[in-house]
Design a protein that fits this description.
There is one protein chain. By secondary structure, the chain is an all-beta fold. Helices cover 3% and strands 48% of the residues. It is built from 1 helix and 59 strands. The protein has a 7-stranded antiparallel sheet, with no helix packed on it. Strand 17 and strand 18 form a beta hairpin. The chain is elongated and about 140 Å long.
Amino acid sequence: MQSVACSRFGTASPSVTIASTRIPISRLFEIRDLFTVGYDCIDANPDQPLRIDPLIYATYLGSEGVDDAEAIARDASGNVYVTGYAGGADFPTTPGAFDRTFHGGCDPLSCADVFVAKLNPSGSALVYATFLGGSGIDRAHSIALDSSGNAYVTGETTSSDFPTTAGAFDRTYHGASDAFVVKLNAAGDALIFSTLLGGALEDHSSSIALDSAGAIYVGGHTLSSDFPTTIGAYNRTFSENAAFAAKLSSDGSSLTYSTFIGDGQAHAVVVDAGGNLVVGGETTIFRFFPTTPGAFQTAPSLMDGFVTKLNPTGSGLVYSTLLGGVRYDYIYAMALDTAGNAFLTGTTNSSDFPVTPGAWNTTFPGSTRGGYVYVAELNASGTSLNYATFIGGTGGSSAGYGVAVDAAGAAFVVGTTIDVDFPTTSGAIQPTHPGDPLTMNAFVSQLNPTGSTLLSSTYLGGSGGDRAQSALLDGSGELYVSGQTSSADFPVTPGAFDTSPHVNTTSQTIDDGFVVKLSGLTGPVSYKTAVDTGPSGLRLEVNGSAVTTPSSFWCPNGATVWLNATSPQLSGSYQYWFSSWSDGGARDHTIQCAPGLSFTAYYTTTPQPDFVLLASPSRTSTAPGGNATVDLTVLALNGYAGSIVDLFLSGAPPGVAGTFSPTFVAPSGTATLALSVSTAVAPGVYPLVIRGNNGTSIRSVPFQLEVLGLQLAANATVLSIEAGSIGSATVTVTLKGNYTNPVVLSVSGLPAGVGVSVTTAEFLATGVATMTFIVASNAPTGTFPVAVTAAGGGTSRAVSLDLQILAGGGTGRGLSPGTTDWTSLLGWFVGASALAAVAIYLVERRKR
């Protein structure tokens, strides 16, 4: 099935593209309701998928720190790989990823760790995302993929503990900053290899490429005289600030070649089908840079762009040419077509930059320090320009940072501009500069294969500032762009991975990465529009559909949306009346969709007549088989004079019954709830609710019923004591629940001549008491049933004990020989009772 889109690159009129053929169609646009935008594509084939919005997806990718999505790649399944640097620990990583810990070191402006992220084909979720770095500052600038989905990343690090792998070419950090080259496996959970590349001073790697055999090519610049070069390389003589190119083995264990090129900085490397490496960048001011005979430009000026093609062994130049005029010229990005022509972009402020006759724009806008975007196509031999043109307005601060070329030879350029008159084409996604006049904004432009026509061009961003840094085309002609945005209103799309910007809580600024996939540069872009009420939580209508605030909706740029502030409306005990909209509009009015819109409807309130229920206490207790009561008040509010309120109990467990007296109340009035708890109800706390219903409203009040538990057990059922002696038994009191009054022990059924003392007579928690029985020598013998009772909390429990008094020898245990009366026995009993009284006093004192 072929991809079909209502608008495609290079056409401002409605069309579909099937098998690379653009077909005009009729199109009618309308807002159908809050959630539906309608297009009537009359001539479209219903059997083909139809795409209308040129933004397939657009997402933020960042943290509360400074983040930048510098480079992008794509696999055959449509997954997108992004690298750059993250500035905060809240950057999104995924479970199982290689490193989820943010290590970033900081400079005065920001902190930075490399990140590598893989987005699914719809841009709605991360397949994986990982940090990569050490305790210093780590930044990545370029990414490449092999057919297995392994990601190759390059950049520079100031981390002495940057992660490297066994057997890698160089695991030693040399100081200042080192370049790095890393291969991350397809799952994003392990390094296949990681190596450093550098010398004693600063080393930077800006671009990476792979050949069909898996060899790795990188380019950048170095200040290190001991930067590693290889025997037989083109140039091993270091100069002050040297552009370099290096080829590593596929396993990262060795340098196939490494060479200096000349004084300058390399920003782009591309390897052709023959294994030749094409390097692009700019020269150092007033320094020598090698050129080859017959090259397009051999005479240097102040600072020029350069394009150098190295042979497959890195031992010589196939060609090397300069590109520029009398002032400053930079090459930031490069792409090759299948014929080996090099498509270049960057910035220039040279009035004599070598534009070509018939190119789209050959007029230099004027003197500026900032520079202007250019696009140039250099032929495969490096001897001439197929075309060179300016792209830009007159503001004088713009640059191209990414370029891609399609199968037909059309160039797509992305970058950033301050120009409010940057050229855009009819029907562009964003035809006008969305920010303040001095705000940088991203752009995307497409030139025809001869460079003579600007097929399509648009701004891309929000009002806060944006920079597009990398561009990639897939086989169906869809364009992927990554970069950095400071815009809270960047045009993200519904369902994208992250549609919310990340605001630094200290500086209140936004610096997020972004990733965008486009099917074209023309057509409407939808923006998220926020609506709220003051206070929040009220209802509004958007295009006739009710929403509860706060809420948001998506609408195409420039579309008309109807907002209605519902009034009056009842919420809780208040009536709300519309007062004003934040934009000054009428209660119901229309708005035009645009980036970053937010609307709030403000209301005044009028208290409504109502009633409430009050219950006391909020927690009541009883024991199984007991009763409890709750006092209830039905209180009228705001002059309530409505119907009587019927009372109901809900939530009662089996065995608990409630009776209201009376069963209905006219506000303001009182009632009593009597609760009956059967003996089968288990101890515990039961949440119950009393409800009042006046026929139109139900109000409720919760309370808790605590069913207390009391258990009593003795350690013996029979206790034998000789007359004139002492014996003891213990009882265990088990309490369940929140007893607020003590459980008291008592003993009954003692015969004459027998007394008892209890070590603990009152309990507020589970415990054990010892009962000491004192039997006089003249006490009657026999078996006497004695009852031990524990009572409290509305319930009581009892155990029986058979007291057997045996005939004694006339001398009681603990008594003086020959004592047969109560004198000594009574003295002992008084002492024991005094000890028990002290224990009871201590319990009571603790309670108070």
